[in-house]
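New to this. Explain the following:
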Amino acid sequence: MESQILFLSDLNFNLEVWKRELKFQESEMDYFEEKLEHIAIRDLGKEVMVRLEHFQNKIIREREVMGHLRHRIRMKKREIAHAKVDNKQEIVFQEKQILLKDEMKTFVKMHYELKEDMMDFFLKYL
């Protein structure tokens, strides 16, 4: 029984780390939006504005995905809080956790790809 409780606390730890990761990435998006506004004010032409709008759309989409992931994390934390401590429940949590882990992994990868693209854009136009 003790190992099950530790396992549930490990799951909870992962959820907290992911929640913090999303919060950090959201603050980065706030900062990047601010930088995009600085570029927009300078009116550097249609091509730059098209790329700028592309980044704004990506940020909007990223925020939607962050909201979805935050919701999944809240629901998972609620499940853990109400979990029955038995072997079968542990397996179900592990399987569901892997799915959420894969979603987070994909999101983080995509976030950092977007971040790199935006940083290149900023270097060129700020």
Summary: The helical segments are 2-42, 46-81, 87-125. The longest helix spans residues 2-42. The two ends are 57 Å apart (CA to CA).
